[in-house]
Amino acid sequence: MIKNRNKNYLALIILTCVLLFANSKIIAQESSKIIISKDLKWSERMALSIMKRAPIAWQVDNNEKTKWDYKIGLLMTSFEKLHKKTNNPVYADYIKGYAETVINSSGEILNYKLEDYNIDNINAGKMLFDLYSRTKDNRYLTALQTLRKQLETHPRTNSGGFWHKKIYPYQMWLDGLYMGAPFYAQYTATFDKGKDLDDVAKQFEQVHLHTIDKKTGLLFHAWDESKQMPWANKETGTSPNFWSRSIGWYMMALVDVLDYMPKEHSKRKELIGYLNEISTTVAKYQDTSGLWFQVTDAGKKEGNYLEASGSEMFVYAFAKGANKGYLPEKYKKLAVKGFDGIVKNLIKVDEDGEIHITQVCASAGLGGNPYRDGSYEYYIKEKIKTDNSHGLGPFILAAVELEK
Fold first, then answer.
1. pTM for this one?
2. pLDDT beneath 70: ranges in the chain
3. Which SUPFAM superfamilies does the annotation name (predicted)?
């Protein structure tokens, strides 16, 4: 009897493998049929190029297995905006296909540990609002509630800001504003009648108070309230340099959170003020090409380069800010100049129409092991990649916003 049971298990495993192999072949065949016409808008040309290279979203960045990931979450956010603009179900299906690989039928998130208190883990949750609304599948509601629960107990600075991660105590990074605040704002607006919007605004207030450089008006990448990290200024707690993508995260967070901040809310005007302040400053550092440099204020200093993701994020924030009336109309022109610069200088087009985004900083952070000191040399020496996910989602977001 035991032998028969083992045989049945073995047969089931073999059948599962066969089905998975067959399904992967079907997906590969479908992706090979994707035609990328030059007559399409840039947003769709990029989306279809991504789908051709990565038939299932987790395969972006050449990942070997699926994972719950903030970068893929950023990409899914861009596909959601594209779906709403085009009503093409292929983009919604791409999101759903990824979600089904990382959230099981009980709503458990793959490899997610609440006790890690990693603010990055919140970002991918934004795709779940629309998925739950469209499908009424309770797995997505459960996952949403799990992520919201993390924010209830997420450790904070003494002044009320979320730590970037449990392993980075008393630190707020600009990146973290995008990772947590838009989800937090959408959740409280959707399920809690906006009761936590003051707390959402507090996250920006803390970053605005502690990371702005009085000399340039730019925001430093991070702030250590304890001032204990070797990279932290012993007087201010700030990191030593300006990284364009980190400022881009902050600006995208502002324009996205404002979607859920009612006109009558007392903090709305404050956040719009922050957006105008940083936009005025960032505009001063736009290169004649329309792009921005990896180290924002360093210009053509040796080793610095025009970086894709930060430039795309600035374009998106400028365009959306102007479209929504948060920023003066002149920022729409700066956004167009920036997007034209991206297409002209950083986009490569294959003979079959597939497009690629070049000069994307693969990653940058502070502390950790190996240690990242936040120096100028550190930022310019991080790997530069083509089609890195940090540069894919913001390209689509910027394109969609400018195509309105």
1. 0.92
2. 1-32
3. Six-hairpin glycosidases
